[in-house]
Amino acid sequence: MNQSNEVVTNLPPGLSAIAGNRDLVNTSEFAQVFNVASQTVRKNYSLTGEAYGIRPTKIGNRLLWSVAQIAEKLRGAL
User: Fold this and answer.
1) Virtual CA dihedral for 22, 18, 76, 44, nearest 10 degrees?
2) What percent of the chain has pLDDT over 90?
């Protein structure tokens, strides 16, 4: 559990600026982190159920992406 807290507190600067203090980001913010169009993220999700190795949480019709998992992916852990 300490490792996940460590990841959240040591976010990459760009991700920290986008996420602020939130645990989840929306699809357009997720796309901004990976420097792709949000439609690319939606297409990857519709084809495989994930995008860049990260599965989103679906709330209603919105896809929300875990900031901790994004940080791990950016660090090369996933």
Assistant:
1) 90
2) 65
